[in-house]
Backbone:
């Protein structure tokens, strides 16, 4: 049995009003991962977040799945205390988030780098004291016409997008598992490909 632990944070906003928004794709991927390992989320006593702990396969690495209840822009306020409590360093944190600069459904995995104007990532970097965590970027595409990005991310997926959403969420969950079990480079070789 391995004692290695990975904290996987799905970025999003709490509450039914936001549950199907593009900005909540991190929450949706976290739900897929929890379902795969038969884990349930419960509200943490350590931070404002829903947390689920499980092992990835029998005797596999320990997963700490997190959905912050702080709203996107303050995600780090939930993740920082949980990483400290579980003794997880930033390099063992994976953030799953929406990405405007990728076409819908496309994935990009990377470690570190800038936040690209994503306030959830900015909050994580600040609270973790490091940018050296893995990002699983889930493409949501750019808003049509002159629609503001802030409005676009807080809208639900379009009907055509919803038709492929379940498959895309499964692929993103596969990518997270691959980072944990095979390493980032191998996962990038599999998932950082154009659709």
Residues:
């Amino acid at each position: 049995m391995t004692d290695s632990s990975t904290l996987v944070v799905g970025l999003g906003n709490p509450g039914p009003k936001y549950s199907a928004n593009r900005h909540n794709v991190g929450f949706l991927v976290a739900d897929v991962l929890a379902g795969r390992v038969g884990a349930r989320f419960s509200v943490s006593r350590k931070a404002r977040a829903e947390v689920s702990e499980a092992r990835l396969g029998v005797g596999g690495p320990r997963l700490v799945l997190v959905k912050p209840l702080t709203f996107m822009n303050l995600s780090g306020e939930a993740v920082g205390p949980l990483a400290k409590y579980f003794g997880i360093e930033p390099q063992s944190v994976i953030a799953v988030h929406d990405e405007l600069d990728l076409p819908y459904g496309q994935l990009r995995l990377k470690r570190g780098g800038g936040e690209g104007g994503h306030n959830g990532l900015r909050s994580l970097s600040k609270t973790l004291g490091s940018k050296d965590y893995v990002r699983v970027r889930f493409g949501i595409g750019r808003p049509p016409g002159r629609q503001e990005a802030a409005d676009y991310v807080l809208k639900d997926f379009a009907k055509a997008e919803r038709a492929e959403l379940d498959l895309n969420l499964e692929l993103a969950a596969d990518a997270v598992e691959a980072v944990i079990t095979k390493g980032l480079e191998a996962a990038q070789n599999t998932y950082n490909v154009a659709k």
In short: The chain has six helices and seven strands. The first strand starts at residue 5 and ends at 10. The chain has one domain: 5-191. The mean pLDDT is 94.
